[in-house]
Amino acid sequence: MYSRHAPPRASAMLEALRGLGYTTAGALADIIDNSIAAFASTVDIHFRWDSQVSSISILDNGSGMDALELDRAMRLGERSPLEDRESHDLGRFGFGLKTASFSQCRRLTVASRKNDATNCLRWDLDVLASSNDDGWYLLEVPAKSFEKILRPLESVKSGTLVIWEALDRLVTPGFTQQDFLDLMDRVEQHLAMVFHRYLEGSHPRLRILLNDRPVAPWDPFLPNPATWSSPIESLATSCGNVVVQCHVLPHKDHLESQEYQRAAGPEGWTGQQGFYVYRNERLLVAGSWLGLGHGRSWTKEEAHRLARIRLDITNSADSEWKLDIRKSTARPPLALRPRLTKLAEDTRKRARRVFAHRGSAVTFGSSDTLVQAWRTEHSPAGIRYRIDEEHPVIKTVLEDAGSMRPQIHAMLRVIEETVPVQRIWLDTTEEKEVPRIDFSCDPSTEVLKVLGVIFRNMVIKKGMDPSLARAQLLRTEPFNNYCDLVMSLPDEPDDRM
Questions:
Q1: Are 260 and 242 in contact (CB under 8 A)?
Q2: 321-324: long-range contacts at Cβ-Cβ below 8 A with a sequence spacing of 24 or more?
Q3: Is residue 360 a contact partner of residue 481, using CB atoms and an 8 Å limit?
Q4: What stretch of H or E contains 241?
Q5: Domains present along the chain, CATH in parentheses
Q6: How many CA atoms, within 13 angstroms, populate the side-chain half-sphere of residue 124?
Q7: How far is Cα 407 from Cα 229, in angstroms, rounded to an integer?
Q8: pLDDT per residue over 53-97, tens digit each?
Q9: Would you state the pLDDT for residue 364?
Q10: Spatial distance between the Cα atoms of 17 and 431, rounded to a whole number of angstroms
Q11: pTM of the model
Q12: How far is the C-alpha of 391 from the C-alpha of 402, rounded, in Å?
């Protein structure tokens, strides 16, 4: 059988690899992966604005590379993704440093210090493009600014410096210094999320500095007494155990304004819902339903915005999870899908209840069930919303209505038939929040006025024991959200209440 050697043309191949779809933040995260694999404790990123000659550098204090190691690191596809990796290795395909860098710049310089020696290599896409053949010319001679650019390496005993220049994918026509600063903010948010488990604690394993400012970790699961967390569950697979824990974050009403804004995350409350897939505690997928669902894949909806599920996979599970080269998408293996779907379904239901009821506890099938003013009726014709005539306030009015009872029933029916469901849905979608309900912006004096009327009727007119009346109010919507006011009601209400 005849064969021929058919290497790809370097410039064409590398230009094609630039289109893999990296964001700047995602590309920088790939570079930091290499720093972590080299046992770095600090990664120092610098954005330098100088219009068309702006640059970005990443310096770590890891173990560094000698000449041979650097040569291997700069070659594309030097290692097969099928090879076994060290347990701490965050790479897989052997492309990350190069493809991540080429997605942002045309000139990539990497210098590394190890054993008191500094080695430097450079890829320059313009040099390759001007070549008359298909050669892969890895340049040994750095740019003219070599000494100045590599000066930061002098501050570390060992480490690696990555420099991006000719940022043609970033500094495009019309791109300003303010755009550069905005880009830095997005990068900071992304790195705070992706590496939060490395950055957390009083003695973090990793420090990331962005123009000398430390990046603070962002935990998607919001450690807070009001956050619901499931027991940790371990699922056995052929590539090791997958660890899962479900979380439902608190409703906005249970958070301070600043805490609520920060908890939203880089993509906002709706965009951040779903599974968070980690490998070696590095976040790979940040908020996705992973193609799960019943019949068709779940989409991100406002009602489930508080649902977030942590999922840890092993370092050997990349192929099983169909992890892509950018480490940004994953799909669970078939054997795990039923259990993950069940866990996600339960978490989505919990999140929907918390979102719809503003964080109030809703229980079912017990004597402490919350009495709500509205109930939902399901039928083949669709869903209808009805006023619950067993609600204590409504029930009392109907009992005392006398000859007015038919008119009150007619009024309630008109209200039921004119609930502005579509308008509420539009407002909720556009405003990204449930419309104001249950005295949420009223002072306590206004709530007490309404409570006083109801409490007086229950105690004086109906003869109910005050303690029992208060207990019933605590189980009645919307007064269940005002426990302190309910408990402050006097045992002997007067006519002024």
A1: no
A2: 321/277, 323/92, 323/279, 323/284
A3: yes
A4: none
A5: 10-214 (3.30.565.10), 229-356 (no CATH), 374-487 (no CATH)
A6: 11
A7: 48
A8: 999 999 999 999 999 999 999 998 755 454 554 554 544 445 679
A9: 39
A10: 40
A11: 0.75
A12: 18
